[in-house]
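Ticket #4471: structure output looks truncated?

Reporter: J.K.
Steps to reproduce: submitted the chain below (158 residues) through the standard prediction queue, then opened the result file.
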Amino acid sequence: MENQFKGSAADLTILEHIENEPDTTQASLAEKVGVAVGTVNWHLKRLIAKGYIKVKRAERKKLKYIITPEGIALRARLLVDYIQTSMGLYRLVRDRSVNAIKTVKKDGHNMVSLAGDGEVADILRLTCIEQGLGISKDGQGYPMLKTVGLKIFIENKE
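Returned output as attached by the reporter:
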């Protein structure tokens, strides 16, 4: 499912970019999506074959991409899917954060240290604050809540 979502995310980004900038190039689309130009070309050919995008020649070597009504509908569906998937991941991380905090509090701790970075660590940090759990700057003697990917681990420091 993750690979399908990545493909859908690329399609969404391509459709949005084309809708906003019909004179875009495959190189600028590749930069926007964060993939090789050949990958963008593959996505475009597929979207064109399915009728989501039309291509018109603007100049001798320049193409103009036009998102069709079907493409606009697809973009809307992909956006809803993206939001639902993102909210599902947010809820998962929130639940894991709350469960880790409950475990730490049940063990009698009111302070923790945190390890990790990125969005998951940000959600954990905010959940700690919301749940009234102090965050130690030096981490000495407190359990550590560590984020790895979407997981949260408790490492007890005695």
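Triage note (M.O.): checked the attachment and the full token line is present. The chain has two domains: 2-67, 90-155.
Status: closed, working as intended.
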